[in-house]
Amino acid sequence: MLLGSVLVLLLFGGAGAASAHAALRATDPEDGTVLKSAPRDITLTFTESVGLLDDSFRVLDPDGKRLKTGDAGHGAGGSETARVSLPAKLAQGTYTVAWRVVSADSHPVSGAFTFSVGKPSPAIVVADTGPTENPATESLFNMGRYLAYLAAALLIGTAVFVAACRPPDPSRLRRLLWAGWGTLLGSTVFLLVLRAPYESGAGPASAFSLRAFERTLTTRPGEALLVRLALLLVAYFFVVRLLRLGEERLPRVWQAAGGALAVGLALTWAAAEHASAGIQVPVAMTSAVLHVLAMSVWLGGLAALLTTLYRASAQLPAVVLARFSRLAFASVTVLVGTGVYQSWRGLGSWGAVTGTTYGHLLVLKLLAVTLLLAAARLSRQWTGRLVRVAAEGESEVVVREKVPAAVAAEGESQAAVRGKVPAAVAAEGESQAVVREKVPERVGGPPSAPEPAPATPGPTAAPAYRHGLRRSVLAEVAVGVVVLVLSTVLSGTLPGRAQAEAAEAGPATGGLPAASVTDVPFAVGGATGKVQITLDPGRTGDNSVQAIVYAADGGLATVPELRLSFTLPAKEIGPIDAGLKNRGGYWGTNDLTLPLAGDWRMKATIRVSDVDQISVTKTVRIVG
C-alpha cells in the first residue's frame, strides 16, 4: 500500500526532469566555423568527466554520408574531453557532428554541431545521424531510479530503527524490511539490464543484447550496480538476523557489519552520480554518503515507527519513542549540514537560485524540508509528553508498592492510635484506596479528604498523546516522500554551476535576419490559450528564444512550467532542450543551437497545475 502510493507520487512528481549534469563547454572546431584546412580530429570539452559509447560520434560529410572515423577516446584534457580522429583528406563543404556521451552522474548527454572546410555547402543532404531518446526506455529507467531510492530508505531506515530503537516486537516490521530489500534488489537488476539502451537511446528490446550488456558491466555505473547487488546478497543474512532480535541489544559485531553494509550501499550512489566528478570530489563523496544515510535513517525510520504505532497490539514503550527522537534529531542535523554543502557545490552563485531550473527545484526542496522539520518538531513534542507520562506512571507504581509495606510495618500501633483500622487488616495491608486516605494521618491531625489530582497530565492522557503522535508521524512520512521526490529529480538536473560554465563558453550570436514566430494553442485542465514562440534569427547556429503565454481573452498569462525541445526527424538529431528560463512575464533563453537547416519539430510542453500539462508539436523551418 505504502509502496504503491509513493510510486504514483514519484512517477507524476518526477516526470520530464531528467536533464544530465554534464554540459558541453567547448568544441574544436568551434560550432559554425569555416576552416581553411581540414582538422585532424574533433574534440569536445565538458564541465565534468564523461563516459564514451561505441557510437559516441557520427560525422556526416557534405553529401550526408557518414565518414569512417577512428575509435572515440579521451583527449589531452582527460576524462572531461571526448575526441575522435578524422580521415586524412576531407572534401570542401559543411560537416555535421552528432555526438552522445554519458555524464559522470550516469545520464546520457547528446547534441550536434557543424563546421565547414573551405566554404559552407550550398545545401545539406538529409542523412541518418543515429538514434534519438527513446521515451519508453527513459521512463522505465527513471522509474527504476525512483524505486531504488525509496527501497534504500525503507531497508536502511527500518534496519536502524530495529537495531537502535529496539521495539518490543520487531517481527511486525518483517514486511517492511523485506519490501525494502526485495524492491532494492529488483530495481538494481532492472537498472543493470536497462542501462545499455538507456545510454544509447535505443528501445527497451535492445536490453537483451549480450554485447551491450557486457559493455555495461565495464562502465562505472554498471560496476556500481554490480557492487550493490553483491552487498544486497550479504544484507539478506543481516535482515534474517535482525528479525530474530527481541528487546536485547544487537551484538557489536553485527552492528559493525550492518553499518558497513549501509555505507557500502550509499557509496554505490555516490560513486555513480555527480559527487564523483567536479570540484572537491573526496568531500563531495563523503557528503553524498552521509546525506543518503541520514535521509534513509530518518524517512525509513519514520515509516517503521508509523507501522509500529498502527500495528502494535500493545502500547509502544516510551523509551522506544525517545530513542528514535534522538536518532531523528541527529539525522536532521547531518541532512542540514550536507544539504547546505551540496547546494553550494551545485549552484555556484546566488544568481543561479532564481536563474536556473536547479535553483528553482532547490527552493522547492527547501520549502518541503521546512515543512518536514515543522512536522518533526511536533512529533518530538508528542514524544516528550509520552515520555513524561510514562515516567510519572513508573513513579506511581513505585509508591504503590512501598506505601503498603510501610503501613504494615506500623502494624497494630496505627490501629490503636486511630481506633479505626483492625490489626488484621493492617497486617494484611489495606486496599490501595484506604491506604491513600490513611497515610497522612500518621503525622497527626484529623482525617482529611483525598487530595485533588495533580495538574500535570496523568496516564489517562497517554492515548490522546499517542493518537497525536501517529498523526504527526504520518504527516512527516507524507512530506518526506515529497522531499525524496525532489531529491531524486534534483540529482538528475543540470546544476547551476555547470550551466553557468557552459554559458560562458558559448559562441557569440551572428547576424539578425527576420525572426521565426510560431503560435502554439493549448487547452488543458480548464485552461485555454496560446504560446507565442519567437526564434531569432531562425537560422542554423545560435538562436534566442522568447515564449509568451496568452490567455483565451488575449491577456498575458503565467504558467508554472514551460519546456521546449527541437528534433530533426529526417536526420534523427535531438531532442535538443531549449532550456527555457522564467524571465518574469515570459520564458526565454539565448543558448539554443540548431546545427542544420530543415523542418524541425518543435515540442512545447505547458504545465498549468501540479497535475495538468499538455504537449503540442509544431513544425518550424530553419534555414541555413
TrEMBL record:
GO terms for molecular function: copper ion binding. Residues 320-389 form the Copper resistance protein D domain. Keywords: Cell membrane, Copper, Membrane, Metal-binding, Periplasm, Signal, Transmembrane, Transmembrane helix. GO terms for biological process: copper ion transport; response to copper ion. It is found in: Cell membrane; Periplasm. The keyword Membrane applies. Residues 1-22 form the signal peptide. The chain crosses the membrane at residues 146-164, 176-194, 225-243, 255-272, 292-312, 324-344, 356-376, 473-494. It is a multi-pass membrane protein. Residues 21-117 form the CopC domain. Residues 435-460 are annotated as: Disordered. Pfam families: CopC, CopD. One of its GO terms (cellular component) is plasma membrane. InterPro entries: CopC/D, CopC_dom, Cu-R_CopD_dom, Cu-Rt/internalin_Ig-like, Ig_E-set. Its main location: membrane. PANTHER family: INNER MEMBRANE PROTEIN YEBZ. Belongs to the CopC family. This is Protein YobA. It comes from Streptomyces sviceus (strain ATCC 29083 / DSM 924 / JCM 4929 / NBRC 13980 / NCIMB 11184 / NRRL 5439 / UC 5370).
